[in-house]
Specification:
The complex is a heterodimer of chains A (230) and B (131). Chain A has 230 residues and is an all-alpha fold. Chain A has helices at residues 2-13, 15-45, 53-57, 60-86, 106-109, 121-125, 127-133, 136-166, 174-178, 181-207. Chain B has a single domain, classed as Nuclear Transport Factor 2, Chain: A (Roll), CATH 3.10.450. Classes of the chains: A mainly alpha (230), B alpha+beta (131).
Amino acid sequence: MASGSGRLRGLKENELSLVFGGLFLATLLGQAFSGLAEFNAQRLTDGLAQVSLLRYVTSSSFAVDVMENWQSEYLQFFLYIFATVWLIQRGSSESKEAGDSGPESDRAQRVGRFAQEDSPAWVHAGGWRATVFSRSLGLVMAGFFLLTWSASSVAGWAAFNGDQLRNLQDPVSWPGYLLEADFWNRSLQNWQSEMLAVGSMAIFAVYLRQRGSPESKPVGAPHDATAATG
Amino acid sequence: MSARRRTVGISLVAAALLLGGCGTVSDDEVRKVATTFAATHDADTRCALLAPATVATLTEQESSTCPDAIGKVRLGSGRPVAVQVWGEEAQVKLTDDTLFLTRTPHGWRVMAAGCRFRSEQRPYDCQLEGS
């Protein structure tokens, strides 16, 4: 009984990540099926043999369609995390107060001699560990962006060359692919939507409310109240 | 090194070898089909190695059977000098021709042959190709 209620509490305390993890898997599966249908429709038009679901999800076409989206998401979070250290949006729940721009004081960040008993271990360790830990969120997002953008370039190169051969043209090298419109079109079409989403959220949060969400100011908070959350 | 790290490391190396090995197997299969297609003078053998869409286009254009039609097409007969495989498609450059192949349920088949390079922006001009 005790372990059962402990498990339930564990689920309850992690429900946000569990729900979005489940949604991610469901939508990835949906993308696999819809992508397979589109891929095979094109091959049918070209008079070529159709492929199975297993062949498709292990193909460069599926890989690039997944990676080009992942890289832009990590870029969005990386830029947003770093931008909100320095840039202000008056009235937004997504922004710090004017005057708090920058990495802030040790006291405000509870590091150094202001670390508390329950602060993470690397904060207490100090030195390079505390320096790295205090930038770890942005660094990990930047790292995942670079990894997924690289993966997107390799998968995109392979998919592009498959298309080249299907169109009776020569394949290109990887450096050659990085100069192709296909690579930059895939990157930029994803980046523009991420920047739009972040910019929209920053300004919408000034004037609009969502009761109960920590992403929103309290419903009754004035429009010029900055850094307030509901 | 912990047992868990050893397992992860071995899995990554195995995955890399498996993927690299798969690529090599496809190269060999493509090379074999291209070599057989180019080397044979038997029309039936050549037709059997053509992709279905290419056979259909050839017989429709020539209004005859594939073995009768393929004899009228100028194709190379040299040896392979370069093989590239990208997913479901492949290209083999012979000493005197360029072939484009596609993967079918029955193995690799020649999609286009008797191909001449025009420019980077334009497709090869092929004597034999599917629509």
